[in-house]
Design brief:
The protein is α/β, with parallel strands linked by helices. Helices cover 42% and strands 13% of the residues. The protein is globular.
Length: 387
């Protein structure tokens, strides 16, 4: 049976070149990067090279790169590090209703600690309402946190315009760019953001390593206390093999951005357009224009998403019904609910997320299997009647 992976927003396979770059730092150059002997200094040199590779991908300076354990820690550090640090200036935070749980759960905790949070809604296209965002800002607003690319729909948020708004009010801006970096061009200087989160395992790097970009001059309370690692911004012995893998993944991502935009977008569009043509009562959730090139979120009326996912899995095809962090939950997607997708379509939704490792043959196999699978499920449904 052919095995096809269309769940790259959950995680991506490690690129073989990334794995090769990491290997020596498990067995040969295994030193602690804080040690002054040769083992440690070779590890330090590799870590600083990786820092430059990450910075080069996102248009940053290397000293603005803080290594973390992943996107969740980066998001938590941005919010929990900044909010208390800026408490004397105000206690109001603005975010959106379609953020990743790493942001939403952190905001809920900050509310329990006396902060006020406004959750800006998104429209049917999946983009947040700028007029509502502007109206939400108060004199006490200290931070805006808006994701760049939504993990479920792929919708790209108008971050440049949000940045202009934040700058005009002297408010710091953080963006969760975990699903953007390596998929679309990201330049922190052009976007004019203060903090940005990214994660290695979303761009063919290893799990357990990420980055918080912190614009030069921005201060915050570290989440972890201990040694003076990462210029006193994140204590703990550095994960050198992971950092090296992240650096290599970022270098490869930069080299492949043009191919990703053209080839992966072409595969995604072919998948999406053929499904819409061949399967009645199927629809796209979110924008079909302002979105990253590798994601489509489709609803199939008269089906149940979890059952469809399991059926496809039996046939060797991996997909998702939403965020991997919510797997096992019977709650409908908070993102699709927030953008006004009807309940029956939310329950019949599937996210297909591609990577540069997907092929035309992968898409062909899906297009062979999916219409038959949806058809069988609808035949068994007493509620579905084709329009």
């Amino acid at each position: 049976m052919r095995r096809v992976y269309f769940d790259n927003n959950a995680t991506t396979p490690v690129d073989p070149l990334v794995l090769e770059a990491m290997k020596p730092f498990f067995l040969e150059d295994f030193g602690n990067a804080s040690s002054i002997h040769g083992f440690g200094q070779r590890a330090r040199a590799a870590m600083e090279q990786a820092r430059r590779q990450v910075a080069d991908l996102i248009g940053a300076q290397s000293q603005e790169i803080v290594f973390t354990s992943g996107g969740t820690e980066s998001d938590n550090t941005a919010l929990r590090g900044l909010a208390p640090y800026l408490r004397d200036r105000g206690n109001h935070i603005v975010t959106s209703s379609i953020e990743h749980p790493a942001i939403l759960r952190t905001c809920e905790q900050l509310e329990k600690e006396g902060f006020e949070v406004t959750y800006v809604p998104a429209g049917k296209d999946g983009a947040i309402r700028l007029d509502v965002l502007e109206a939400a800002i108060k004199d006490r607003t200290i931070l805006i946190s808006i994701m760049y690319v939504n993990n479920e729909t792929g919708t790209i948020q108008p971050l440049g315009r949000i940045s202009e708004l934040a700058r005009s009010r002297k408010i710091l801006l953080h963006t969760d760019a975990v699903q953007a970096v390596g998929k679309i061009p990201v330049d922190v200087k052009k976007l004019n953001v203060d903090l940005l989160s990214l994660s290695a395992h979303k761009l063919h790097g290893p799990k357990g390593i990420g980055v918080l970009y912190v614009r030069r001059g921005v201060r915050f309370n570290p989440l972890f206390l201990g040694g003076p690692h990462e210029r006193n911004r994140r204590a703990g012995t550095e994960n050198v093999p992971g950092i090296v893998g992240l650096g290599t993944a970022c270098e490869l991502a930069k080299q492949g951005l043009e191919d990703f935009e053209k080839r992966v977008r072409g595969l995604r569009d072919r998948l999406e357009n053929t499904v819409l043509e061949q399967i009645p009562d199927s629809s796209v959730n979110g924008s079909r224009t302002e979105r990253a090139p590798h994601v489509t979120n489709l609803s199939f009326r008269g089906t149940e998403g979890e059952a469809l996912l399991i059926s496809l899995d039996f046939q060797g095809i991996a997909v998702s019904t939403g965020s991997a962090c919510s797997s096992g939950s019977l709650e409908p997607s908070h993102v699709l609910r927030a953008i006004g997708v009807p309940s029956d379509l939310i329950h019949g939704s599937i996210r297909f997320s591609l990577s540069r490792m997907n092929t035309t043959e992968d898409v062909d196999y899906l297009l062979e299997v999916l219409p038959k699978t949806v058809g069988r499920m609808r035949e068994m449904s007493p509620l579905y009647k084709e329009r």
